[in-house]
Amino acid sequence: MVPGTSDLSAVTAIMEHYVEHTVATFNEIPPSTEDWAQRYSALAARGLPFLVAEMAGEVVGFAYVAPWRPQSAYRHTVESTVYLAPGATGHGIGTALLRELIDQATAAGCRQMIAVIADTGSPASAALHRHLGFVDAGRLHAVGVKHGRWIDTMLMQRDLTTPP
C-alpha cells in the first residue's frame, strides 16, 4: 500500500525506535515526518516504490527502494530498505513487504537490488533476503560506530532480471 500522511507519522515512529535503540540503522538522529514526506516525494518522482504494511488498521512496517548511488551509470540499481514495528516480526510481514518491493522495483525497470544489512548479531534480515533470492555480495568491516559499538555491514544482491 502506498503511504498517506498519517502513514508517514507511523513510519517516523517505527524508524525512531530503530535509531534510538538499535544498530540496525546507522542513522543517529531519527528522520522527521517531514523528512519522510520529502523522501517519499523524491522516490515517487523517480517511479520507485515506497510501501507500508498495515495490520488491524495500523502501520506495522514499511519498505522502499532508493537509488544505489547518485552516478547515472547506476540508474538501474537500487538499495532496498525494510523495517517492521517492534512486535510485528515473525508474522510474514517482512516477507510480504520485500516480495512486493521486488515486484514493484522490477516493474519500474530496476535490474539489480542491493541490501546493506548492519551486522546486529541477528541472522533474521539476512535470512529474509536469502529466502527471496538475494546472494551474499560482500562484507564491510567496522564501517559504522553506534552506541559505542563498531559495526560491520553485509552486502547482499538480487538480480531482478531473472527469477530467484
TrEMBL record:
InterPro entries: Acyl_CoA_acyltransferase (IPR016181), GNAT_dom (IPR000182). PROSITE patterns: GNAT. CDD domains: NAT_SF (cd04301). Residues 1-161 form the N-acetyltransferase domain. GO terms for molecular function: acyltransferase activity, transferring groups other than amino-acyl groups. This is N-acetyltransferase. It comes from Promicromonospora soli.
